[in-house]
Amino acid sequence: MAKPYSIRTDREFMLAWNAMSSFKKAQDILSLLNKSIEAGKHPVSMSLFGAICGYYAAPFMSSNNLGCLPAKNLISARNKKLHESMLKLRNEVFMHLDADVELFGVKYATNPRIIVWQDKTITIEAKSWLPNGFKLIEIETLLRKLVELLHGHALEYIKNKLQGMDLPPGEYVVVTERGSLKLNACREHGG
Question: What is the pLDDT of residue 148?
């Protein structure tokens, strides 16, 4: 069994924080996607779902600066298949446009559709594919759990790091300088 996730270094803190930010963007777009589906705007929905996959997958892709999140310490066995599907979607569909891809059990989801009509005319179209509502709920739940987990660990790490420091009340922005965290006081609320 993988060891539980924890933040031990400043680099891991910044990685977790950036990942949490990426997952929150995916949550925001998922909210827009749900509204788009309710409004019947399915052509837009596929684009929104692609953005969700991109923001979800980004923290798990290697970065020159921070590295990548350790999925084995964050993703439960129950969510492993969903996680792998989201990475596959990002890699094979939304970033590389591979053909013959299966998306959550739908074979050839991105392939063109040829329609032969009664009068023998032929049309070709692309279907706007989306996972079913239950899959979207699973994605929403996974994103929420990841944000909560990373936020909790980030808060614990920063509290331990600042323990013993006599900081005046106010708002601070956390930056990295030569690989270490540094606090800069904000001049006004919001940075």
Answer: 94
